[in-house]
Amino acid sequence: MLLFKNIRELTQYLGSFPQQGKSIGFVPTMGALHQGHISLIRQAAESNELVVCSIFINPTQFNQASDLEKYPKTIGNDVLLLEEAGCHVLFYPEAAEMYPEGLYAPPRNFGKLTTIYEGAFRPGHFDGVAEVVKRLFNIVQPNRAYFGLKDYQQCMVVQALVKEEKFPVDLVFCPTMREADGLAMSSRNRRLSQDDREKALIISKTLFWMKNHYSRLSIPELLKKAETELSNKLKVEYIDIVNAETLEQVTTPEQKAVALFAGWCGDVRLIDNMLLNE
Ligand code: AMP
């Protein structure tokens, strides 16, 4: 695997691939890699001649300085995992390389998408996400880019960004990888104490329960029980059931529905979601 820290050297290297008819699959990450990230790399390796991963803890998408500071960094292990999974190129820039003119992300307006759920609880978060994805796409110019459905709303924001900026890229959304006991894999899980790790299990347990009961109970009934179960163990920011395509109210049972959750387990913020009727 080749490692680049510099944009110019990376673009020089990548430039020859499209001319040779070789496709580039791109997986943007913030590092502290786990098998969720690696599933994206493997999927990219199946469909592309070249797999590029970026590791960049993007400061403009953090709305809390302490969250940014505490974000785990495990670059040595990340490199080993990427090599094992068949990644060809790692882009690992410093913040000054990505934002030479200063750390700023202009406000974006993708309608309600950017102001509800994650957008409401993490003001400016999606502006930062959109900005870094835009910059990374301009640098890597991938044919395909891989994102995890674990960050459900982020997938929708990236989709809106690609449409607005007319990026010639195919987006591939990949299923959420879970630990054997159901907890969604996340870089933030390493910050959970043993006690909080136990408590966090209620998230996937409740989401699976909602999926199993979706055809039998009404949405208010499902949410009432879910709220009670989750609030017993965690500080819930939101738990809701919405139309999976619009993130608006579900109006008919035929609509694809998704349950969205965010909350705090100790001082670690976790998100998860589940498609309820696929
Ligand atoms: P992050 O490093 O958290 O920015 O994540 C990088 C990419 O990996 C994003 O597209 C995430 O949605 C995806 N990802 C994170 N956790 C998982 C998971 N448990 N399963 C599948 N994809 C994931």
Please explain how this structure is put together.
This protein has 278 residues and is an alpha/beta fold. Helix content is 41%, strand content 19%. The protein has a six-stranded parallel sheet with strand order 1-4-3-2-5-6, with helices on both faces. The protein has a three-stranded antiparallel sheet with strand order 7-8-9, with helices on one face. Helix 10 (194-213) runs antiparallel to helix 11. It is globular and about 55 Å long. It binds adenosine monophosphate. Adenosine monophosphate binds at residues 29-30, 36-37, 39-40, 147-148, 150-151, 174, 176-177, 184-187.
Report the structural category: alpha/beta
Helix % is 40-55%
Strand segment count = 9
- How much beta, percentage-wise? 15-25%
Query: How is the largest sheet built, in terms of strand order?
Result: 1-4-3-2-5-6
* Bound ligand species: adenosine monophosphate
Q: What's the SSE blueprint?
A:
Blueprint: E1 2-4, H1 7-14, H2 16-19, E2 24-29, H3 35-47, E3 50-55, H4 65-70, H5 75-85, E4 89-91, H6 95-98, H7 118-121, H8 125-140, E5 144-148, H9 152-165, E6 170-174, H10 194-213, H11 219-233, E7 235-243, E8 257-265, E9 268-275
Helix pairs in contact: 8-9, 10-11
The structure holds adenosine monophosphate.
In short:
This protein is an alpha/beta fold and 278 residues long.
Keywords:
9 strands; binds adenosine monophosphate; 3-stranded antiparallel beta sheet; 19% strand; 41% helix; alpha/beta; globular; 6-stranded parallel beta sheet; 278 residues
